[in-house]
Amino acid sequence: MNEYKVSDYGIFNDAVGTAKKLNESLDTSKTEIDECKTKLNSESVFMGPACDNALKGLASCCSKIDLLHENYNTISSYLVDTATNYESSDKEAKVNILSINSDGKLELSTSSSASGVANFSGSNNEEKMYNYLSSQGFNDAAICGILANINYESGFSTDAVGDGGTSYGICQWHEGRWDSLNSYCEKNNLDSSSIEGQGQYLLYELQNSYPGVYDTLKSVPNTSEGAYQAAHKWTTDFEVPADTENQADIRGGSASSTYWEQYGSSN
Question: Which CATH architecture has domain 125-263?
Fold first, then answer.
């Protein structure tokens, strides 16, 4: 395995330095604009509407400069975090995705672990989800628990709609969670109707909104009993279907038998 150092990736430091210089230039520009605004204010009584329009234009420029400031700072944070991950070689570190919203503001969102390049290979959605979750560091028991639940929720259909048209996708994300799926995919240039978009959102939501479930999945023993535990926890805390406890037992049984027989480490 290669050992990476920040010094090996000088482009990170160069880019951070460039962002800093750009921010300094923006500070100078904003100072000059403020001076111009002060002079125009003193003449506004004589110049009337023309002066007022000019002041509005300058105020708009200042607002855009503030946005650029924020964006350059976000870029700097992104680059520093990326360089730090390379330096530490921390395979379990969460990494950030840099995206831009409809207002032109850059945002950082936490995604999957630094260890795993997303692998969605496979001949069907079930295989693709198995390979993806495996690439993100989950053991077979945890994956079996997730797959059993997805099978009961949607049969791995990314277009599945339920609950009277209020739930969608492989996990049947309901109402606000469906909206969050769409928002996440839009921000990260993903297709919310694809297995890739839904798979990556599943992990994002798990890490950021259901850390207890995530921790359980990361700690279950890699056995058929571990598969049962993973499915049970996913059902009661992540999916929460009707007749929750009974469903948790049924899905746990499916995970520890059908799915473990197919994907378990002993096979």
Answer: Orthogonal Bundle (1.10)
